[in-house]
Amino acid sequence: MNHVLMENRNGLIVDVETTESNGRAEREAAIVMMARSCRHGSTVGADRGYDSRDFVDACEELGVKPHVARKRRHSAIDGRVARSKAYRTSLKIRKRIEEAFGWLKTVGGLRKTKLIGRAKLAGHSLLCFAAYNLIRIGSLSGWWDARHT
Q1: Class of domain 2-148
Q2: Quick one: CA dihedral 121, 124, 128, 130, positive or negative?
Q3: What residues have CB less than 8 Å from 29, skipping those under 6 apart?
Q4: 34, 63, 106, 148: which could join 40 in a potential S-S bond, CB 3.0 to 4.6 Å?
Q5: C-beta separation of 97 from 4 below 8 A
Q6: For residue 95, what are the contacts with CB-CB under 8 A and spacing of at least 6?
Q7: 127, 113 in Cβ contact below 8 A?
């Protein structure tokens, strides 16, 4: 599985992690990437799959505010957090990560990988996300028209 940490302001990929696929891989990889890349006071947006007590506690230990989509019942996210404007903004912007994964699958060639082994897949995905960042930076600064990709 490929896991990505994206910064919200410009939609750039900050960190990439490749793991084996299991039931806990997404949350564990997110914690590792946050420990590597997030500063104290940052926020992290995620979908409902991350709404678990262990993930929220790990975020709070790292000094990161979890802006995770709440489950309907038994949510680990506090009601005060869910009522904030920053929380609502994070829930909208977190969907931007799908653009990067869509680009990775279509342009980057990882819809069906031809590589065998986690190290090779990690290298290929890191290279593809670096290229995605270059194109994203170009379109943000105006020197690249994103329709060419």
Answers
A1: alpha beta
A2: positive
A3: 1, 3, 17, 19
A4: 63
A5: yes
A6: none
A7: no
The end-to-end CA distance of the chain, in Å, is 24
Whether the pTM exceeds 0.85: the reply is no
Tokens of 71: 């489950």
Whether residue 74 has pLDDT greater than 70: yes
Within 10 angstroms of residue 148's Cβ, the number of other Cβ atoms is 8
What Å distances lie between residue 40 and 7, 61, 84, CA to CA? 14, 10, 19
| Distant-in-sequence, close-in-space partners of 65: CB < 8 Å, separation ≥ 6 | 41, 42, 43, 44, 59, 81
**Where exactly are the structural domains of the chain?**
2-148
Distance CA 62, CA 112 (A): 35
Contacts 24+ apart (CB under 8 A), 109-116: 110/2
What local confidence, expressed as pLDDT, does residue 148 receive? 55
Of 50-59, 60-69, 74-83, 95-104, minimum mean pLDDT range: 74-83
